[in-house]
Design a protein that fits this description.
The chain folds into 2 domains: 9-135, Arc Repressor Mutant, subunit A (Orthogonal Bundle); 142-267, Trna Endonuclease, Chain: A, domain 1, CATH 3.40.1350.10. It is built from 12 helices and 10 strands. A hairpin with a 3-residue loop joins strand 5 and strand 6. By secondary structure, the protein is α/β, with parallel strands linked by helices. Helix 1 (12-21) crosses helix 2 and helix 9 (212-222) packs parallel to helix 10. The strands form 3 sheets. The chain has a 5-stranded mixed sheet with strand order 4-5-6-8-10, sandwiched between helices.
Length: 290
């Protein structure tokens, strides 16, 4: 068992191993879970938050993001706009890296690029690792702060209700009240306008990780009411919680963590506005061919 938080560079080869095990590509969550499994990282370590006031991210996830950033710059990884990471041809051929070499090469390239742009290199280093911020999304931190610190639990339930409606659910009701066993609401999910099934949901503001115990408690509240549950949180789910949600012989529970919640709110523009900057280019050849 790994009883210490691994450094970002020590996660590079486990990250590559995880992608090979996943068939060459995977989402951030899939990679995260596979790395925890391969590195045998204990739950008490994987649950340590990076910054509980600004982010729902764990320290391991944060360092894994840096590992992805370095490996991408080194030419071993590619990622799509939908957050799927893929091994490059060179990664498939070489399979392993020397973390020391990767760090040295990437930092040298960053300093050279900064020099070319006439930028001053920050000698104190950026955050932990002297490189560009991994998948920098300041809006996520701001959203996390708003959801966990600036709105009430009732408001978060109403936000969940609105999100489910925007996602195609009907008859969505917030029913959360004392003594309701942790159930915050119910609704009906429609599939392609023909099929439908009833769900009950729980939506909780968490500054940390949701444990397997919380999932079991929610499933207990589901008993005799529905065969499908939905658990939405601003935090993350521990690997044990994820396994518990899909345990054989029990009603399944779909999980939506803070990262997925942020993406959905952005997709439906619920409190989030995306501004596109217009770029105008002149096609000189077009004019010459007149």
């Amino acid at each position: 068992m790994n009883k210490q938080i691994p450094t970002f560079d020590s996660l590079m080869n486990p990250l590559l191993d995880a992608l090979f095990a996943l068939g060459g590509s995977g989402s951030i969550d899939e990679i995260y879970e596979k790395v925890l499994e391969l590195k045998e990282i204990e739950e008490k370590i994987s649950s340590v938050p990076h910054n509980s006031e600004k982010s729902n991210e764990t320290e391991v996830a944060y360092r894994l993001a840096w590992a992805r950033t370095y490996l991408k710059k080194y030419g071993f990884l590619e990622n799509s706009s939908r957050g799927v990471w893929t091994l490059t041809k060179v990664a498939k051929e070489e399979k392993k890296v020397s973390p020391e070499v990767v760090v040295k090469k990437v930092r040298q390239a960053d300093k050279l690029n900064a020099k070319k742009k006439n930028e001053t290199t920050n000698t104190e280093h950026i955050d932990l690792y002297d490189s560009d911020s991994p998948e920098a999304d300041g809006w996520r931190e701001e959203l996390y702060h708003v959801l966990t610190n600036e709105i009430s639990a009732d408001a978060f339930e109403r936000l969940t209700q609105r999100l489910l409606r925007e996602s195609g659910f009907v008859q969505v009701e917030v029913t959360g009240r004392t003594g309701d066993g942790g159930v915050d609401g119910k609704g009906i999910a429609r599939i392609h306008g023909f099929m439908s099934f009833h769900i009950i949901f729980q939506c909780k503001k968490y500054q940390g990780s949701v444990s397997a115990g919380a999932i079991r408690d929610f499933r207990g509240a589901m008993a005799g009411r529905t065969e499908k549950g939905l658990f939405i949180t601003t935090g993350r789910f521990t690997p044990a919680a994820i396994k518990e949600a899909t345990r054989d012989g029990t009603p399944p529970i779909d999980l939506v963590d803070g990262e997925q919640l942020a993406e959905k709110l952005k997709e439906f523009e619920l409190g989030i506005q995306t501004q596109m900057i217009e770029k105008v280019t002149i096609d000189k050849d077009w004019f010459k061919n007149l």
